[in-house]
Amino acid sequence: MDRSANPGPLANLKVVEMGTLIAGPYCARLLAEFGAEVVKIETPGEGDPLRKWRQLHEGNSLWWYAQARNKKSVAVNLKAPEGQQVVRELASKADIVVENFRPGTMEKWGLGYDALASANPGLVMVRLSGFGQTGPYKDRPGFGAIGESMGGMRYITGYPDRAPVRVGISIGDSLAAMFGVIGALSAINHRTTSGKGQVVDVALYEAVFAMMESMLPEYGMGGHVRERTGSALPGIVPSNTYLCGDGKYVVIGANADSIFKRMMKAIGRADLADDPALADNAGRVKRTQELDRAIGEWTATVTLDRALEVLETAEVPSGRIYSIADIAADLHYQARGMIERHKLGDQELLLPGIVPKLSETPGGTRWIGPRLGEHTDEVLRSLGRSEEAIASLRAKGVVS
Hints:
It is a single chain. A 6-stranded parallel β-sheet has the order 5-2-1-6-7-8, with helices on both faces. A hairpin with a 5-residue loop joins strand 9 and strand 10. It folds into 2 domains: about 260 residues, Crotonobetainyl-coa:carnitine coa-transferase, domain 1 (Rossmann fold, 3-Layer(aba) Sandwich); about 80 residues, formyl-coa transferase, domain 3 (2-Layer Sandwich), CATH 3.30.1540. The chain is an alpha/beta fold. It contains 18 helices and 13 strands.
């Protein structure tokens, strides 16, 4: 697809990204994927620490090329007054500033919302932090792992006879980033009628807590505390993971009444399909162990492929558990454009496709994550700096 002919639905927005690692940069990445011009501020000589995380290629992490795609890298020393002035000038022309420093850091640099909005009343500032900009915990350091724990996710993840476990990705940061995007676009929409910007305050623990479904009302009404249940979905039956005869696992969600009947007949248990006591979920919950045992006995006699064949024929939601190798090879992923292929030197770089799919103004990858300071001169020129002035700032170590 020719991205130059379709720059994306957010191409009119200018974003300044200030922050490192995951939450703030992922928030800005999502905006950049749909066309926003994102200028990422990085520390000269160091850059975002994410550049050095996990597997590296030519000095940058492979993660970096996805997290920073479509962004412009500007290396500015935020501790230097002249560097802070560069940010003020960028913010004066920006629609959105994204930052994920500990509360008070931006103010220490003279870059708090009030200072920046005085020159740009329509500015929207997305502030992502562990505990939010207010409250008794606001000054505590807070990473995604802490937000996942305080937000309730860790407590319910894993098996009841073992310690709580983490999801295998930085889900707390990513959830906070997505709420940041929702808040930013909501605030931009409000600005179209009011002309006024505002602060979007996202706490990591609150982003996680917002995902906790019915946990709070169940506790508030009856004192019920949801516990870890392993691979099962408590109170919704049958919905679990079952071991097949070839040592592989199948995930089955047959909890709708009609689906349950179809599945039981398909696996040779018409007696359970026709049992009036199992006609609805309430009845099935009472006999959870019996139903899981019956399904598990069947899956143990077939391979994963055969189990999926039987279940798909009966129109029962089911699937295998994918590794990243399975994902990269999957025809549906490829057909949906979810496996992007890019050149990185003489090698091929795979990046995840863009979500969601927009029919008229889809997002896209215009370029992969940039070199540190790759766009410093370009952006400074756009602010009216002469070549001599840029050279002076570089000589002082303000930019690189």
